[in-house]
Amino acid sequence: MAGSITTDIAGGRGVPPVVRDFGGGDGDGGGRGAHRRAAVTGLLVLLAASVMLFAAFTSAFFVRRGMSNDWVDTPVPGILWMNTGVLVASSLALELARRALRSGRRIAFNRYWTGATLLGVVFLCGQYAGWRQLNDAGIYLATNPSSSFFFLLTCVHAVHLLGGISALGYIDVQALMLRLGPGKRTAVDVSAYFWHFLDGVWIYLMVLFLFWG
Amino acid sequence: MLLGPIVWVLTLVICYFFMGHYWWFPPPISEHGQAYDAQFTVTLWVTGVIFFCAQMALGWVIVKFRDRGGVARYSHGHNVLEVVWTSATAVLFIGLVLAGTRIWAAVHFAEAPADAMKIEVMSKQFAWSFRYPGPDGKFGRTDLKLVNDQGGNPFGIDDKDPAGKDDVTSASIKVPAGKPIELIMRSRDVIHNFFVRELRLKQDIVPGMEIPLHFQADVAGVYEVPCSELCGLGHHQMRTTLEVMPPADFEKWLREQAAQK
Amino acid sequence: MSSPVVHPHHAPTGFIRRYIFSLDHKVIGIQYYFLALFSVFLGMSLSVLMRYHLIYPDAKVGWFEKLWPTGAAGGIMTPELYLSLMTMHGTIMVFFVLTTAPQSGFGNYFLPIQIGAEDMAFPVLNMLSFWTTFLALCVMVAAFFVPGGAPLAGWTAYPPLSAVGALSGPGEGMGQTLWIISIAIFSGASLMGAINFIATIIDLRCKGMSMMRLPLTCWSWFVTAILGLLGFAVLLGAGVLLLLDRMAGTSFFLPAGLLVNDQILNHKGGSPLLWQHLFWFFGHPEVYIAILPGMGVASQLLSTFSRKPIFGYKAMVYAILGIGFLGFFVWGHHMFMSGMNPYSAFAFSVLTMSIGVPSAIKTFNWIGTLWGGRIRFTTAMLFALGFVSLFVTGGISGIFLGQPALDLYFHDTYFVVGHFHMIMGVAAIFGMFAGTFYWFPKVTGRFMNETLGKIHFYLTFIGVYAIFTPMHFLGIAGNPRRYADFTNFDFLGKLLPVHTFMTHAAIYTAVAQLIFLVNLIWSAKKGKRAPDNPWEATTLEWTIPSPPPFDNFAGKHPVVNHGPYEYSVPGAPKDYTMQTDPA
After folding, report:
1. Range of the domain at A135
2. Global pTM value
3. Of B3, B67, B101, which is closest to C346 when you measure between CB atoms?
4. Which of A83, C3, C102, C553 is found 20 to 30 A from C156 (Cα to Cα)?
C-alpha cells in the first residue's frame, strides 16, 4: 500500500503520493497542522520523561523497601482522599470545558476551565495540609524510608502540578480576556492531556502508598 | 593517503608491544589466576586478530581506493556479507563471555569450601585492618562506638564478649599457602576495593554490606594490595600487603600474635 | 501550500535578538558549539595539570598557589586538589563537551535543514535549553570557587563519599552540592533539547523525506535524543535523592554503621548500590549519546568523500536503533565488582557483548563504503577515517571489560581509563572535528585551511594513540585509576616511565589543538570563499546558500525524491544526485 511505513522500509523510491510515516515527510512540515502535531508529539515525549522519573523513584522505592528493616508504612492522611476527588473532578471539568469549546460554547468553556484551575489550586492546598498533618503526627521527610518516599513523591508530583496549573492559568487568563483564538486550541488540548497525565500519576501514587507504602 | 601506512605502522607498533609483554601481569599465584590468564590470552588473540585485520583493512582501502579518476562502484551493500559477518561477530563475542563464565562462577557462584579459614577485612579511610578469629574460631562482637584506631581496636571489638578475647588484629593480611581462605569484607565509611594483582581478584567493599570473597594462594611471597575504588584524598596511599606463608610459618605467626594479647 | 506557521517567522533584528537570545536553531547550534569549545579547552587544561602532577607530584609551581591557596599551599598540588581536578575534568568533558556539541551543536544547526524544515519544532524551548545549559556550566565552574573547592568524588559521585558532606573530604561540602545542582539543571536542559529533536524529526520532515531517506546523521540525532530523554530523567531523579541524603537527613544511599572521620552517622538502611544502579542506568546510554552523532557524521563523510552510497543503509539504521535499545540494558557492566548479585552480572555481560554486534556491523559497513570508492582526502575525511580507526581500537578493549571474569582484574585500572578515553575522548572528538571541517563552509561560506587542518589531524591522530594506548598496558600491569600519585607502591614506581611518556604526549597533543583553534578563528574571517556545495554532496543542506538564510529554505518547501547517499549512480549526469533532484 503506497505511503505506508512498510513501503518506505521496503525501499520505495520515486515521488510518493502522500507518505504517512510518523506524521512527517508528507509535505506538511510547514503548515499549521505540523505545528499542532509537533506540540502533541512534544507533550508525549515530555510525558515519557516524566514517566521515567517516577519509574526511577518507584524502583528506588521497592529496592529500599526490600532491603531495610526500618520501613514503617506511612499512614495516608485522610485529606488525601479528598484531594484525589478534587483532582479527578478537575480533570472532568477540563473535559467538559474542551467539549464546550468544540461546540463553540465559550461561556461554558470559561466556567469549566476556571473551575478546573481553581480545583487544581485546591488540590495543592490540600496536599500542603496533608504534609502538615503528617508533621503534626511526628512524621517528617527523614523520619524513616517510607516517609522519605512519601514526601518525595508527593512533592515531585506537586511540582509537576504547579507547571500544569501555570499552563491552565495562562489559558484561563487568555480565555477570560476573550483572547482564546483557534490558534490556541492546541495549547488547550496539550494542557489538558498533561493535566490528565498528572491525574493518572496521582492515582498511581495513591495505589503505591496504600498497598506498599 | 599517507593515513593508510600510518594506520599500518601504529597497528604494528601496538601489536608489537602487546606481544612483547613489556608491561604485563605479575605471575599468577593461584589456580584461579592461571585460568584467568588463559581466558585473557584467548580474548587477546581474538581481539588482536580482529584489531589487526580491521586496521589493516582500513589502511588498505585508504591506499587502494584513493581517487585516481575512474568511477566509484555504485552499491548499496551486500546482504549475504552483512549476515555472515554479523553472525560471526555475535558467535565470537558471546562465545568469549560464555567461556569466561566458569571463572566467574568459581569465584562468585560457588561458596567458599567449608574448611576455608575466615578472615575479616575492615577498610576505612585510609587504612586496612584484618581480623583472625583466634583458637576459638569465633569472631567477637563489634560495636562502632568502641572503635579506637589509636588504641589498636579498629574493629571496635567488645572486650565483654569472650569470643573476641582471642581475636587477632593485623594491619596486613597473612595467609597460609595452599589453603582455602574466605574473606569477609566490610567498610566503615565509604566504598573501598581489595585488589591483589597476583591473585587476579578484586572486590568492592560497600558500607552496609558484608561481602565474601574466597581464594587459595599457592605461591609464597609478599604482594601489594592497592585500594581500587576512589575513597577520598588518601586513596592512593591506602596500601597493605598480602603475605602468603608456608603453613607452618603461618601457624607460628598466628600463635605469636595471639600470645601477645 | 505554504501557509504560515503559527509562530511568525521573520528575520530578527537587534544584536540581542540575533545573537544572544536567538530563536534561530542555527545560532543556538553555534552557541552550543562555542560552549563546548570553551569547555573542552577547560577540561583539557585540567587533564594536562593532572598528567603533570602524576609524574612530578612534588613539583612546586608558583601559580598553583595563587589559584588554589589551600589545595596547593606552597605551590605543591595536594592529592585532594588532584582528585577535584580529575572530577571536574571528567564532568566537564562528559557533560559539557560530549553531550552538547555532537547533539545540540551540530544537531541543532543541521537537523532542521537536513529534513527540510525552517526551524526546530519549538524555537523558544530551544533557546531556553541553551541558556539552561549555560547556567548549569556556570554553577559547575562555581564549584571551584567555594570553600573546600570542587568535589573529589569523580564524575560518578558514588555515595557514601559524595553523600556525607565535607566529612569525607575537602570539596565534598558546598562543592559537591553545587555539582549535583549543576547536573540537575543540565538534565533539565537535556530533556528540553530531547523534546525538540524528537518532535522535529517526527513531525517536520518535508515532502518525500521518509524516515528511510533520512541522512544517517539525522537517525543518530533521533536515537541520541531518545536516549537522552529517558536517561537524563533518571539522572535527575538520582540527583534529587542524593541531594536529600546530603541536606535533609534521608537515607536513600546511606547505610547504617557509618563512622566517617571519627563521627558516627545516624543514617540507616540505605544502599550505595542503589545510586550506582540509577547513575549507570543513565550513564550507559550517556556514552552512546556521546558517540552516536559521531557515527552519523562518520557515515555521512565516508559516503560523501568516497563518492559511494553508504554500504548497507538499512543495516546502519538498524544498528543505530539496536545500539540505542540495547544501551538501556547493559548498565550493570559498570558494576561487576560492586557487590551486586553475580547472576545479574552474568546477564549484563551477555547483553554487553551483544551490543558489540551492531557496533561491529557499523565498522564493517564503513570499510565496505570505502571499498570501491574514489576517496578524496579532505581534512574532514581524514578525521572521519581517523574516527573509524579509533573506534575500532577503543571498542576492542571493551571486549575485555565486558567479561566479568576479566573485569576481576581490570576494574578500576588504567585499562578502563584507556578504553573510555579512546572511545569518548578521542573517537567522539574526531567526529566533532570531522563535522567542523565538513560543515564550516556551509555555516560561514568559507573553507577552513586545509594545510593547517592536515597538520593538526596527523599530530592529533598520532598523539592520541601515544597518550591512550599505553594506558592499556598500565592496566594489564594492574595500575589503579584515580590515584593522585604513584609513590606509595613498588609496582607502580616501575611504571613511571610509561606515565612520563604519556604526559609528554599529552602536552604535545594539547598544544597541537591550538592549531585547530587558530584555523577555526582565522578561517571564519579570512578563509577561502566556498561555493554552496563545495563537497558535491547530496543532502539538503547543500542545496541552500552558504551561510543559509534565516529560515533556511527562503520560504520554499523542498521536495525530496532520492535517498541521502546517491553517489556515482550509473547513468546519472554527475557523480552525485542531490536528494531534491528530479526523480
Report:
1. 42-212
2. 0.94
3. B101
4. C102
